[in-house]
Amino acid sequence: MSAVADIQECRDFLAANPQVRFVEVFFTSMTGVPRGKRLRVHELEAIYAYGRFLPGSILVVDTTGADCEDTGLVWEDGDADRRARPVPGTLTLAPWLGPDVAQVMLSLYELDGTPNDLDPRHVLQRVLDRYAADGLTPVAACELEYYLVDLQRGPRGELLPAKSALTGMAPTGIQVYGLPELEAHAPFLRELWDTADTIGVPLEGAISEFAPGQVELTLMHKPDALRAADDAVLYKRAAKGVALRHGCEATFMAKPWSDRAGNGFHVHLSVNDAAGNNLCASEDLEGSDLLKHAIGGMKALLGEGMAILAPNANSYRRFKANSYAPVAPTWGVNNRTVSLRVPAGPPKTRHVEHRVAGADGNPYLVLAVLLASAHHGITHKIDPGAAVVGDGYAAAAKENIRLPNNWFAAVDLFEQSTVLRDYLGDRFVDMFVSVKRTEQARFFEVVTELDFDWYLRNA
Q1: Could you list the residue ranges forming a coiled coil in this record (predicted)?
Q2: CATH for 7-115, among 3.40.50.2020, 2.130.10.10, 3.30.70.1350, 3.10.20.70?
Q3: What is the four-CA torsion angle of 385, 390, 393, 394, rounded to 10 degrees?
């Protein structure tokens, strides 16, 4: 069972922060969107003592927050309450919301105290329990790419890169790893790092990524994959809030521009034994046998997990050859053209970087699928085959292999996956599929300008 925060944590925090008047409490739904309430501070201690009752239907709302009636958790269930409990260690100030505002993450439980099997945190914990039973501890770190964009759209409704508060100019050109591009947004970055320190998120260095206005900041590796996912959720929330304070918006949308790089969510993974030794470590650049088996499992289940790694219609616009977004189940050493990359580095740091997920993925579910796939590979000693040397895109084209390239095919494959059902739970898989099929129907009901451009006169 997942840990529940102790009431003393609340009392200590309020004693140290008497200025707090409001608290935002939130959990992360299947679609990765934080949802919750803003409360008066006098309500907080009761949440630590008894929890807060929230309607079960919010577990299965779509990306826009609309009910998904086909799940059976709206009318048939009477929209019954579940109990939300605070996540230990997540009660912090929320400085971008003002000096008198705090925040705390929640997890959902049934009324009898059983972890709710549709809460993404508990889905990930279910996978981690399989590792613990084998005396293994996954070590994880998340890298999220995103764009800083102007709050105002262009004359045709298009997105515009955010202008620098220092120069008043918008970025032009790719300028990958450009320092002036980072310096132009120095006030945003300074406040973001300060905020991360305040909320306990181990945020590290920043780079200017492969498009104007695109940045990436890394999160520190942790031998606690659940907390690593918490970090990613807290970081995204903070980045969005701090960006607004600087007159722009942080978007983690997978492909905001058709002609520019997409936003990836790269996950770095290794596995420790009970003594804290890295079982992926090896003088061999390809890593230990355990690492290769983990890669074999992740490679084998990439297609079946794509509905989680690329959860939205827009997600599939990101996967193009020669774009640094992978298009096939491939792996290699020190090679950014493959899906599963073993980075260069000292033998003791050997691990795999999973490069498929988009920044629009739910961090809990992305980690759950990747770790389930890796555990499956370790357990069954799955051979990943030969590592790709050189151009992974060319290798995929030559072998005629690729990942599912549309939303519908991905959801169908996920529904049919016996392995992922075993790790994530039948009920979760069925409910996730139901939510995504509702989203698909709603998305494609909308007639867009592109429909008119292509078909108004040509049909």
Answers
A1: none
A2: 3.10.20.70
A3: -100
